[in-house]
Write a structure and sequence with these properties.
Elements lengths: L1 H22 L8 H32 L2 H28 L2 H24 L5 H15 L2 H8 L9 H52 L15 H12 L2 H17 L5 H8 L3 H20 L11 H20 L4 H7 L7 H30 L6 H29 L2 H22 L1 H5 L38 E2 L2 E2 L4
Antiparallel strand pairs: 1-2
Length: 484
């Protein structure tokens, strides 16, 4: 009997592992074109992270100024926010695959300029700032085109898994890229690191060239112009639930992100030095990577708006608790000193928990935005989403640093987490369409008005349209746009 029980237990464990493997996000890699894009992006984004490290290192070597080092981030943020809306219009009006090929080629040229000027000792701070600004402006065209392309590469029901894998990709690149960048700077120098980044763009460009060309219906595509931009604004204004989830992400990153003052925590509060700082930086990505393993079940979440609110609340709660690490609540009750004992690993765990919550929010928000938006509007909506995603962390670094200077780093993080939780509650109450939003597999999104439900279909990856029963409807601002 004991043997039979153990055998039954092992069989149950094997079956659960098989079910987990079938439901995991990696099943989306069965789509050839998506697999090509994902693998190419992994190489390219890792190379870009190496370049980010190289630029920061080179600017500091030249200037020895933290302020001038911060100008790099300012140049990136201004360029991305200035060109994102225009990029969204272009992504809706042009073939997105070809647009991405042009973008990757232009970015490779930018890395080539950095490499050549560094190797020939002609590099200067104004040149670096100019190239960084131009490369960021070009990158602004990448996000909306890529985000709008993904739903055309996979079936509708697999989109949450595809977005989970994309989030996994960027988190892996965030972990691997900076480490490889530091190693490359030590072995082949800053110029050689730029060359490595230039080569990495060839991976995603080759993948895009190998993908099957997608049919671009001329009738459904808007013309690039100011009228098209206004049309995008009108679409979002009529769908407050979309603006609500974008604002939710902005508030979470603006108030809650502690990335800008983590060096202070590592050096002066937790006293773990530069290596500990590197671990704290990667903690959020580690939590996100762990959460990806469970993202196959995200497709079963029907009330995605409520899921986003809960995930952001988890983020804010972890940030509040992180602000209390090595303070009276944790320090006096459980341990006597900081360094590599309890406080550091508690801080690491809390940041990892925040990263897991951010992963859930990112995937659900991406699915919500993409599936509630018709294909001819996805570029402009994704571009607006990019402004919130980029603007929140960039401005949040300034906010956290300013509050830390006026008060203390702990109070900066603590008040930021509390403000994030407060903003989540306000959005949940004032925009009920966010918490009431849910998936329904009977009607598609409408490109006209939120209260209409004209039957339509989305193209299946590389093939004919999906069946009408794989379409979508949403509840917006308390009014049903389609049946449940």
């Amino acid at each position: 009997m004991l043997r039979m029980a153990r055998g039954s237990e092992r069989a149950g464990t094997v079956n659960r592992l098989r079910a987990w493997a079938r439901e995991g996000p990696w099943t989306t890699l069965r789509y050839r074109d998506y697999r090509l894009l994902w693998c190419g992006q992994l190489v390219s984004v890792t190379g870009s992270q190496m370049r980010v490290v190289a630029v920061a290192w080179q600017v500091y070597l030249i200037s020895h100024s933290a302020l001038l080092l911060g100008v790099v981030g300012l140049a990136q943020g201004l360029a991305m926010m200035a060109f994102s809306l225009v990029a969204g219009v272009v992504a809706d009006a042009r073939d997105r695959r070809r647009l991405l090929i042009v973008v990757q080629s232009a970015l490779a040229c930018g890395s080539a300029v950095l490499a050549l000027s560094t190797i020939t000792h002609l590099v200067s701070l104004p040149m670096i700032y100019a190239v960084v600004f131009l490369m960021s402006a070009v990158s602004a065209f990448d996000f909306p085109a890529r985000q709008a392309l993904i739903p055309t590469l996979v079936a509708r029901e697999d989109l949450p898994n595809a977005l989970s894998l994309n989030t996994l990709l960027f988190n892996l690149a965030t972990i691997i890229g900076p480490s490889l960048g530091g190693l490359a700077i030590g072995i082949i120098g800053v110029g050689g690191t730029y060359v490595a980044d230039m080569v990495s763009f060839l991976a995603v460009a080759s993948a895009l060239l190998a993908m099957r060309p997608l049919a671009v219906p001329a009738a459904g595509r808007p013309r690039a112009g100011f009228a098209s931009l206004l049309e995008g604004f009108s679409y979002l204004r009529a769908r407050r639930f979309l603006l609500g989830v974008m604002a939710l992400d902005f508030c979470a990153m603006f108030f809650g992100s502690p990335a800008g003052i983590l060096p202070i925590f590592a050096r002066d509060i937790l006293r773990v030095g530069p290596f500990g700082y590197g671990l704290l930086i990667s903690a959020g990505a580690v939590g996100a990577v762990i959460a990806v393993g469970f993202s196959g079940r995200f497709r079963f979440i029907r009330r995605q708006g409520l899921g986003i609110l809960i995930a952001v609340a988890v983020w804010g709660t972890c940030i509040v608790a992180f602000g209390l690490t090595n303070g009276p609540l944790w320090h006096g009750a459980f341990w006597r000193q900081a360094s590599w004992q309890g406080p550091f690993w508690l801080a690491f765990t809390l940041l990892a928990g925040a990263g897991a919550g951010d992963l859930v929010s990112t995937v659900l928000r991406g699915t919500m935005v993409q599936l509630s938006t018709p294909d001819q509007m996805r570029g402009r909506v994704s571009a607006t989403n990019a402004m919130f995603i980029i603007g929140g962390p960039a401005l949040g670094q300034f906010e956290s640093g300013a509050v830390a200077g006026l008060l203390t780093p702990q109070l900066s993080v603590l008040t930021g987490g509390l403000a994030c939780l407060l903003a989540t509650g306000i959005i949940a109450v004032t925009i009920p369409g966010v918490r009431q939003f849910r998936l329904s597999l009977d009607r598609p999104p409408s490109p006209t008005a939120p209260d209409s439900a004209t039957p339509a279909t989305d193209p299946a990856p590389g093939g004919p349209p999906l069946a009408p029963d794989q379409t979508f409807a949403a509840i917006t601002d308390g009014e049903t746009t389609g049946g449940e």
